[in-house]
TrEMBL record:
Pfam hit, one: CENP-L
Region entry Disordered, spans: 124-145
Protein name: Kinetochore complex Sim4 subunit Fta1-domain-containing protein
Amino acid sequence: MAQTSPHHLLNTSWTSHRLSPLHHGNEFETLLDNPTALDTYATRLRDHLTNSLANVQGWQAEEDAPTLSTIGALKSCTWATLSPLSDLGGQTHQTQREDHQAGILVTLEYENITYKAALLAAPTTSASEPKTKKNKKSNQKKKVESNSTYLPVLLTRLPRSLRESFTGFLSATFDTYCSLLRLPSKFMCAALETYVGGLSSRAEGNPSSSSALIEDVIKEMHLTLSFSPPISPALKSLNLSIPQASLTAFVRAAPSPSTIGSASGSGSVDDQGSSSVLSGLSAYLEKHLALDSGMRMGMGSAGELFWGGEYVRLTRIACAGFVITGEGRVKLVAQARDGEGEEEEGRSERNRAALRASESLLRALLGRGVAEE
Protein backbone atom coordinates (compact mmCIF):
# COMPACT_ATOMS: atom_id res chain seq x y z
CA MET A 1 0.00 0.00 0.00
CA ALA A 2 1.36 3.43 -0.93
CA GLN A 3 2.39 5.55 2.02
CA THR A 4 2.82 9.29 2.51
CA SER A 5 6.18 10.67 3.58
CA PRO A 6 6.47 12.02 7.16
CA HIS A 7 8.07 15.12 5.62
CA HIS A 8 4.50 16.46 5.46
CA LEU A 9 4.85 17.03 9.21
CA LEU A 10 7.58 19.62 8.65
CA ASN A 11 7.28 23.39 8.16
CA THR A 12 3.74 23.52 9.55
CA SER A 13 2.49 25.10 12.77
CA TRP A 14 0.60 22.36 14.62
CA THR A 15 -1.61 22.26 17.68
CA SER A 16 -1.04 19.09 19.72
CA HIS A 17 -3.83 16.98 21.18
CA ARG A 18 -4.03 13.66 22.96
CA LEU A 19 -6.33 10.91 21.68
CA SER A 20 -7.62 7.80 23.40
CA PRO A 21 -7.74 4.63 21.24
CA LEU A 22 -9.89 4.73 18.10
CA HIS A 23 -12.48 1.92 18.14
CA HIS A 24 -13.51 0.61 14.74
CA GLY A 25 -14.07 -3.11 15.31
CA ASN A 26 -17.73 -3.01 14.32
CA GLU A 27 -16.75 -2.09 10.75
CA PHE A 28 -13.06 -2.83 10.14
CA GLU A 29 -10.57 -5.01 11.97
CA THR A 30 -7.63 -2.79 11.07
CA LEU A 31 -7.15 0.84 10.12
CA LEU A 32 -3.54 1.77 9.31
CA ASP A 33 -3.03 -0.98 6.75
CA ASN A 34 -6.56 -0.90 5.34
CA PRO A 35 -7.04 1.40 2.29
CA THR A 36 -10.74 0.59 2.18
CA ALA A 37 -11.24 1.76 5.76
CA LEU A 38 -9.25 4.95 5.16
CA ASP A 39 -11.27 5.78 2.04
CA THR A 40 -14.53 5.06 3.84
CA TYR A 41 -13.75 7.36 6.76
CA ALA A 42 -12.41 10.04 4.41
CA THR A 43 -15.74 10.06 2.58
CA ARG A 44 -17.68 10.25 5.83
CA LEU A 45 -15.50 13.08 7.09
CA ARG A 46 -16.06 15.01 3.89
CA ASP A 47 -19.82 14.68 4.25
CA HIS A 48 -19.63 15.61 7.93
CA LEU A 49 -17.52 18.72 7.33
CA THR A 50 -19.64 19.88 4.41
CA ASN A 51 -22.81 19.69 6.48
CA SER A 52 -21.36 21.04 9.74
CA LEU A 53 -19.62 24.02 8.11
CA ALA A 54 -22.83 24.98 6.33
CA ASN A 55 -24.74 24.77 9.62
CA VAL A 56 -22.19 26.92 11.44
CA GLN A 57 -22.39 29.67 8.83
CA GLY A 58 -26.14 29.42 8.69
CA TRP A 59 -26.71 30.96 12.11
CA GLN A 60 -23.66 31.98 14.13
CA ALA A 61 -20.05 31.68 12.98
CA GLU A 62 -17.14 32.28 15.33
CA GLU A 63 -14.68 35.05 14.61
CA ASP A 64 -12.05 32.68 13.25
CA ALA A 65 -14.51 30.40 11.49
CA PRO A 66 -13.72 30.18 7.78
CA THR A 67 -16.46 31.31 5.42
CA LEU A 68 -17.25 29.68 2.12
CA SER A 69 -16.29 32.88 0.32
CA THR A 70 -12.84 32.74 1.94
CA ILE A 71 -11.83 29.10 1.67
CA GLY A 72 -14.17 27.99 -1.08
CA ALA A 73 -15.83 24.61 -1.35
CA LEU A 74 -14.25 21.42 -0.05
CA LYS A 75 -12.71 19.77 -3.13
CA SER A 76 -11.23 16.63 -1.58
CA CYS A 77 -10.69 14.85 1.72
CA THR A 78 -8.00 12.16 1.88
CA TRP A 79 -6.69 9.85 4.58
CA ALA A 80 -3.23 8.43 3.89
CA THR A 81 -0.90 6.26 5.94
CA LEU A 82 2.35 7.93 7.03
CA SER A 83 5.55 5.98 6.48
CA PRO A 84 7.85 5.35 9.51
CA LEU A 85 9.37 8.35 11.25
CA SER A 86 12.79 6.84 10.58
CA ASP A 87 12.29 7.92 6.95
CA LEU A 88 12.43 11.49 8.22
CA GLY A 89 15.95 11.25 9.58
CA GLY A 90 17.28 8.81 7.01
CA GLN A 91 18.15 6.00 9.41
CA THR A 92 19.50 2.65 8.29
CA HIS A 93 17.29 0.02 6.72
CA GLN A 94 17.75 -2.17 9.79
CA THR A 95 16.15 0.48 11.97
CA GLN A 96 13.38 0.95 9.44
CA ARG A 97 12.46 -2.74 9.62
CA GLU A 98 11.98 -2.37 13.37
CA ASP A 99 9.85 0.74 12.90
CA HIS A 100 6.20 0.88 11.91
CA GLN A 101 3.73 3.15 10.19
CA ALA A 102 3.84 6.58 11.78
CA GLY A 103 0.10 7.17 11.62
CA ILE A 104 -2.48 8.83 9.36
CA LEU A 105 -2.30 12.13 7.49
CA VAL A 106 -5.67 13.79 6.86
CA THR A 107 -5.67 16.39 4.07
CA LEU A 108 -8.59 18.74 3.48
CA GLU A 109 -8.24 20.55 0.18
CA TYR A 110 -10.49 23.55 -0.28
CA GLU A 111 -10.59 25.78 -3.35
CA ASN A 112 -8.35 28.45 -1.82
CA ILE A 113 -6.49 26.70 1.00
CA THR A 114 -5.40 23.28 2.24
CA TYR A 115 -5.68 22.15 5.86
CA LYS A 116 -4.02 19.14 7.48
CA ALA A 117 -4.22 16.92 10.53
CA ALA A 118 -1.98 14.03 11.56
CA LEU A 119 -2.84 11.15 13.88
CA LEU A 120 0.49 9.74 15.08
CA ALA A 121 1.03 6.17 16.25
CA ALA A 122 2.67 5.26 19.54
CA PRO A 123 6.42 4.55 19.41
CA THR A 124 7.58 0.95 19.38
CA THR A 125 8.46 -0.78 22.62
CA SER A 126 12.00 -0.06 23.74
CA ALA A 127 14.44 -2.94 23.40
CA SER A 128 15.72 -2.19 26.91
CA GLU A 129 12.41 -3.03 28.58
CA PRO A 130 12.19 -6.32 30.53
CA LYS A 131 10.74 -9.23 28.63
CA THR A 132 7.93 -9.67 31.16
CA LYS A 133 6.88 -6.07 30.61
CA LYS A 134 7.05 -6.53 26.84
CA ASN A 135 4.97 -9.71 27.01
CA LYS A 136 2.36 -8.00 29.18
CA LYS A 137 2.10 -5.10 26.75
CA SER A 138 1.97 -7.52 23.82
CA ASN A 139 -0.89 -9.48 25.37
CA GLN A 140 -2.81 -6.31 26.11
CA LYS A 141 -2.24 -5.08 22.58
CA LYS A 142 -3.49 -8.32 21.03
CA LYS A 143 -6.76 -7.99 22.93
CA VAL A 144 -7.58 -4.62 21.43
CA GLU A 145 -5.62 -4.36 18.18
CA SER A 146 -8.32 -6.16 16.20
CA ASN A 147 -10.92 -3.69 17.45
CA SER A 148 -9.05 -0.42 17.89
CA THR A 149 -6.00 1.57 16.82
CA TYR A 150 -3.91 3.56 19.29
CA LEU A 151 -2.87 6.92 17.84
CA PRO A 152 -2.08 8.89 21.02
CA VAL A 153 -1.08 12.23 19.47
CA LEU A 154 -3.20 14.33 17.11
CA LEU A 155 -1.62 17.30 15.33
CA THR A 156 -4.00 19.78 13.72
CA ARG A 157 -3.51 22.68 11.34
CA LEU A 158 -7.13 23.81 11.33
CA PRO A 159 -9.12 26.92 12.32
CA ARG A 160 -11.09 26.53 15.53
CA SER A 161 -14.51 25.80 14.05
CA LEU A 162 -13.09 23.26 11.61
CA ARG A 163 -10.99 21.65 14.35
CA GLU A 164 -14.04 21.26 16.56
CA SER A 165 -15.96 19.65 13.70
CA PHE A 166 -13.06 17.29 13.00
CA THR A 167 -12.58 16.20 16.61
CA GLY A 168 -16.34 15.84 16.94
CA PHE A 169 -16.30 13.48 13.97
CA LEU A 170 -13.52 11.41 15.56
CA SER A 171 -15.42 11.18 18.84
CA ALA A 172 -18.69 10.19 17.18
CA THR A 173 -17.12 7.70 14.76
CA PHE A 174 -14.43 6.05 16.89
CA ASP A 175 -15.68 6.68 20.44
CA THR A 176 -12.40 8.45 21.21
CA TYR A 177 -11.69 11.31 23.59
CA CYS A 178 -9.64 14.29 22.42
CA SER A 179 -7.96 16.80 24.73
CA LEU A 180 -5.29 19.46 24.37
CA LEU A 181 -1.79 18.08 24.96
CA ARG A 182 -0.14 20.63 27.22
CA LEU A 183 3.63 20.51 27.51
CA PRO A 184 5.06 21.14 31.00
CA SER A 185 8.32 22.94 31.68
CA LYS A 186 10.15 19.66 32.20
CA PHE A 187 9.19 18.54 28.72
CA MET A 188 10.19 21.90 27.24
CA CYS A 189 13.64 21.65 28.83
CA ALA A 190 14.07 18.07 27.64
CA ALA A 191 12.83 18.99 24.15
CA LEU A 192 15.55 21.62 23.76
CA GLU A 193 18.25 19.24 24.96
CA THR A 194 16.86 16.50 22.70
CA TYR A 195 17.06 18.76 19.66
CA VAL A 196 20.55 20.06 20.45
CA GLY A 197 21.68 16.52 21.22
CA GLY A 198 20.38 15.37 17.84
CA LEU A 199 22.50 18.02 16.13
CA SER A 200 25.58 17.26 18.23
CA SER A 201 25.42 13.56 17.38
CA ARG A 202 25.92 14.40 13.69
CA ALA A 203 29.35 15.88 14.47
CA GLU A 204 30.46 13.59 17.30
CA GLY A 205 34.15 13.89 18.10
CA ASN A 206 34.50 17.25 16.36
CA PRO A 207 33.55 20.07 18.78
CA SER A 208 34.18 22.88 16.28
CA SER A 209 32.01 21.19 13.65
CA SER A 210 29.31 20.54 16.25
CA SER A 211 29.26 24.19 17.33
CA ALA A 212 29.09 25.41 13.74
CA LEU A 213 26.24 23.01 12.98
CA ILE A 214 24.25 24.09 16.03
CA GLU A 215 24.67 27.76 15.14
CA ASP A 216 23.74 27.13 11.50
CA VAL A 217 20.55 25.19 12.27
CA ILE A 218 19.27 26.94 15.40
CA LYS A 219 20.57 30.44 14.65
CA GLU A 220 19.01 32.89 17.12
CA MET A 221 17.05 31.44 20.03
CA HIS A 222 14.17 33.02 21.96
CA LEU A 223 12.98 31.61 25.29
CA THR A 224 10.05 32.62 27.47
CA LEU A 225 10.16 32.07 31.23
CA SER A 226 6.93 32.25 33.24
CA PHE A 227 6.70 32.84 36.97
CA SER A 228 4.24 31.64 39.59
CA PRO A 229 2.15 34.48 41.13
CA PRO A 230 3.45 34.01 44.71
CA ILE A 231 7.01 34.56 43.51
CA SER A 232 6.41 37.44 41.11
CA PRO A 233 2.88 38.92 41.21
CA ALA A 234 3.76 41.78 38.85
CA LEU A 235 6.07 39.93 36.44
CA LYS A 236 4.27 37.15 34.58
CA SER A 237 6.91 36.30 31.99
CA LEU A 238 10.44 37.12 30.87
CA ASN A 239 11.63 36.88 27.26
CA LEU A 240 15.25 35.89 26.67
CA SER A 241 17.06 36.14 23.34
CA ILE A 242 20.33 34.36 22.62
CA PRO A 243 22.04 35.67 19.44
CA GLN A 244 23.62 33.20 17.05
CA ALA A 245 27.17 34.26 17.90
CA SER A 246 26.60 33.58 21.61
CA LEU A 247 24.62 30.35 21.31
CA THR A 248 27.47 27.86 21.61
CA ALA A 249 28.82 29.73 24.64
CA PHE A 250 25.86 28.30 26.55
CA VAL A 251 26.49 24.77 25.30
CA ARG A 252 28.83 23.36 27.88
CA ALA A 253 29.81 19.89 28.94
CA ALA A 254 27.83 18.09 31.59
CA PRO A 255 29.72 15.99 34.19
CA SER A 256 29.45 12.91 32.01
CA PRO A 257 27.52 11.74 28.94
CA SER A 258 24.16 10.47 30.12
CA THR A 259 20.74 9.69 28.83
CA ILE A 260 18.43 12.62 29.31
CA GLY A 261 15.31 11.77 31.27
CA SER A 262 12.22 11.30 29.19
CA ALA A 263 10.25 14.43 28.52
CA SER A 264 7.21 12.51 29.65
CA GLY A 265 8.67 11.82 33.05
CA SER A 266 8.80 8.05 32.61
CA GLY A 267 11.35 6.12 30.63
CA SER A 268 14.12 7.62 28.55
CA VAL A 269 14.83 8.95 25.12
CA ASP A 270 17.81 8.56 22.87
CA ASP A 271 21.28 9.42 24.14
CA GLN A 272 21.70 13.16 23.87
CA GLY A 273 25.42 13.43 24.58
CA SER A 274 26.83 15.92 27.08
CA SER A 275 25.65 19.28 25.75
CA SER A 276 23.37 21.39 27.90
CA VAL A 277 22.14 24.77 26.70
CA LEU A 278 19.98 25.28 29.77
CA SER A 279 22.74 24.61 32.29
CA GLY A 280 24.87 27.29 30.67
CA LEU A 281 21.97 29.72 30.44
CA SER A 282 20.96 29.10 34.05
CA ALA A 283 24.49 29.83 35.26
CA TYR A 284 24.58 33.03 33.19
CA LEU A 285 21.27 34.30 34.60
CA GLU A 286 22.31 33.53 38.15
CA LYS A 287 25.66 35.30 37.72
CA HIS A 288 24.56 38.42 35.86
CA LEU A 289 20.91 38.85 36.91
CA ALA A 290 20.91 37.08 40.29
CA LEU A 291 18.02 35.00 38.91
CA ASP A 292 17.90 31.37 39.95
CA SER A 293 15.90 29.86 37.09
CA GLY A 294 16.36 26.29 38.31
CA MET A 295 16.90 25.09 34.73
CA ARG A 296 20.23 23.43 35.45
CA MET A 297 20.60 19.70 35.10
CA GLY A 298 21.17 17.39 38.05
CA MET A 299 21.57 13.68 38.63
CA GLY A 300 18.65 11.83 40.19
CA SER A 301 18.93 8.86 42.52
CA ALA A 302 18.49 6.50 39.58
CA GLY A 303 21.19 8.27 37.57
CA GLU A 304 18.76 10.11 35.30
CA LEU A 305 19.10 13.77 34.42
CA PHE A 306 16.43 16.15 35.69
CA TRP A 307 15.65 19.85 35.63
CA GLY A 308 14.76 21.80 38.74
CA GLY A 309 12.52 24.83 38.84
CA GLU A 310 9.24 24.78 40.74
CA TYR A 311 8.40 28.46 40.42
CA VAL A 312 10.16 29.37 37.16
CA ARG A 313 8.81 27.58 34.10
CA LEU A 314 10.03 27.44 30.51
CA THR A 315 6.90 28.01 28.41
CA ARG A 316 8.15 28.81 24.91
CA ILE A 317 11.16 28.02 22.72
CA ALA A 318 11.55 29.55 19.26
CA CYS A 319 14.49 29.25 16.91
CA ALA A 320 15.16 28.65 13.21
CA GLY A 321 14.90 24.88 13.69
CA PHE A 322 11.69 24.56 15.70
CA VAL A 323 9.06 26.32 17.78
CA ILE A 324 7.34 24.73 20.77
CA THR A 325 5.09 26.18 23.47
CA GLY A 326 3.54 24.98 26.70
CA GLU A 327 0.08 25.23 25.10
CA GLY A 328 1.00 22.43 22.71
CA ARG A 329 1.99 24.46 19.64
CA VAL A 330 4.75 22.75 17.64
CA LYS A 331 6.56 23.59 14.41
CA LEU A 332 9.55 21.71 12.96
CA VAL A 333 11.56 23.45 10.25
CA ALA A 334 13.67 21.49 7.75
CA GLN A 335 13.95 20.89 4.02
CA ALA A 336 12.31 17.73 2.77
CA ARG A 337 15.03 16.94 0.24
CA ASP A 338 18.73 17.62 -0.08
CA GLY A 339 20.18 19.62 -2.93
CA GLU A 340 22.37 18.17 -5.66
CA GLY A 341 25.95 18.94 -6.58
CA GLU A 342 29.16 19.34 -4.64
CA GLU A 343 28.35 22.92 -3.69
CA GLU A 344 25.28 21.63 -1.84
CA GLU A 345 27.25 19.21 0.34
CA GLY A 346 27.43 21.57 3.33
CA ARG A 347 23.77 22.47 3.04
CA SER A 348 22.84 18.80 2.74
CA GLU A 349 24.73 17.94 5.92
CA ARG A 350 22.94 20.76 7.73
CA ASN A 351 19.58 19.55 6.44
CA ARG A 352 20.21 15.93 7.42
CA ALA A 353 21.14 17.06 10.92
CA ALA A 354 17.96 19.14 11.16
CA LEU A 355 15.86 16.19 9.99
CA ARG A 356 17.38 13.85 12.58
CA ALA A 357 16.85 16.43 15.31
CA SER A 358 13.23 16.94 14.17
CA GLU A 359 12.65 13.20 14.29
CA SER A 360 13.98 13.06 17.86
CA LEU A 361 11.66 15.88 18.88
CA LEU A 362 8.65 14.17 17.30
CA ARG A 363 9.42 10.95 19.16
CA ALA A 364 9.70 12.88 22.42
CA LEU A 365 6.28 14.43 21.73
CA LEU A 366 4.84 10.96 21.14
CA GLY A 367 6.37 9.80 24.40
CA ARG A 368 4.62 12.65 26.16
CA GLY A 369 1.30 11.69 24.59
CA VAL A 370 1.68 8.07 25.69
CA ALA A 371 2.68 9.10 29.23
CA GLU A 372 -0.54 11.14 29.53
CA GLU A 373 -2.55 7.92 29.23
